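Honest question from a wet-lab person: if I give you the sequences of every part of a complex, can you actually get the arrangement of the whole thing, not just the pieces? Trying it with mine:
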Amino acid sequence: MKNKNKAIIYVVLIVMSFIMLVPFAWMVLTAFKTVGESTQMDPFVILPSKFRLENFDEVMHNVNFGRLYFNTVMMIVLRVLCAVLTSTIAGYAFARLNFKGKNFMFGLVLFQMMIPSQIFIIPQYVMVSKFGWTNSMLGLLFPGLVSAFGTFLLRQAYMGLPKELEEAARLDGCNIGQTFLFVMAPLAKSSMVALGIFTAVFAYKDLMWPMIVCPDTNQTTLASALSKMQGQFSSNYPELMAAALIACLPMIVIYVIFQKQFIEGIATSGGKL
Amino acid sequence: MSNKPKVTGRERSEFIWGWLFILPTMIGLIVLNIIPIFQTIYQSFFKTGDFGRGNIFVGGANYAKVFADTEVWQALFNTLKYAVVEVPISIIISLVLAVFLNGKIKGKSTFRTIFFLPMVAAPAAIAMVWKWLYNSEFGLLNHILPGKTNWVSNPKIAIYSIAIIGIWSIIGYNMVLFLAGLQEVPKDYYEAAAIDGATGVQQFFSITVPLVSPTIFFVLVTRIIAAMQVFDVIYMVIDNNNPALYKTQSLVCLFYKYSFQQSNKGYGATVVVVLLVVIMFFTVLQMIGQKKWVHYN
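Yes, you can. This is the full assembly:
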């Protein structure tokens, strides 16, 4: 009975893994096929006759992936730095300091988290256009300058730390800034990492904002460039899959290497939303 | 112990440092989010003039138009249909997977890594692959399955095909949240149940589900909010000349179309205010309903 249950569990897990992997496998296999192979039905071609790189050459020739990578990585790095930096200090103040206006301000933080983000987009876009930041890195970064969610997450992290540490630091003559910098901030490092990963993944996946502010193919991000390519290569699926693979592979490789940090970072952040 | 001036000194110092620390975040939030909420609501009372500029105040005309607009009603219906399919099915699958992975299983972290994989792929890329899998002539799905299904161009089923992509993309994420919730369930509950002769299925419904109900509730609320904002996949998979467009476009798709493709920001703002109201309605409904089935502690 027990073994039978175990067997069922393994079968379900393996079938599910298969379902999760097939789309990725199909992306890879199609990327190496010729158009002829990809549209041949009788017999249906699963493996390409040989692993050609022509599709990759072709899309890299047509699309400046180097530039797109640069834009995407820069946007991610800047958004992560801004979110982690501002949230780390604000989270500390909300968790540990008492000052007039604190509760109202924290109310605003919570309020922002409850509002669907599309509400902000038109005014944010109008501001970006007024400042002349369309098709620029500043435009891509703009909505990620601060993070209400990050502030909330870091506040939770500080609230879980013992009060004695701060009192000891205070007795040693540290002012609030020093206590924060040398005692408390280092202890919140795991939450900062979690917020960083969370911010990076969602910045990478964001589609609507880069499409709106950076319509220029050379100034935009991978995600938004992919949406344009779909029109450009219309139904040449081997080339589309090659482009999709180029866009996805680095993130997937980084994920597989740091999978524990990724999953825990996203789960601990997501779970506290 | 403490003499008075020292206390006020501490208070003043906390006030100064506190505001210094929250200032960057608060300025950002007010400029980027809080003011824009009111600007969007304000905008929804205006009609954007034909040649850019020139907002014309139209009072409630946009709202009157929204209520009479069958395209908006259809989009709301599409969005709800997507949510009603995606959210419960993804939650059930991911809860079962989490329970399976919570036991003594070989290759636990490999399974977890695989299930979570879609979370780190660009939705644009995922949508492209699925569109290719769904291709009615050359797609892998029609090759494996009997019949010739127009997965994404048949208006009757396209929204469900989109929901399948949504489910596939999110089960790993939900599963990880459930795994965290399951850590809280004491092991001896299961041992006691096993001694009483409860089967695995009985244990699932009488122990696991009630004990992780706070996590289920949390995932339910956040997933419904996210599902109501579905955009990427529909935008990528359903072309403008797809016959299923009308029966698949979500409210956010309409918001994007009106605001940024037809630059009618006033009407776009109205649609997004409607979305906000709908989301708040369902969230409040769940907050009230939770008392019936969520067990804390």
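Two things worth pointing out. DSSP finds 13 helices and two strands in chain B. The mean pLDDT of chain B is 90.
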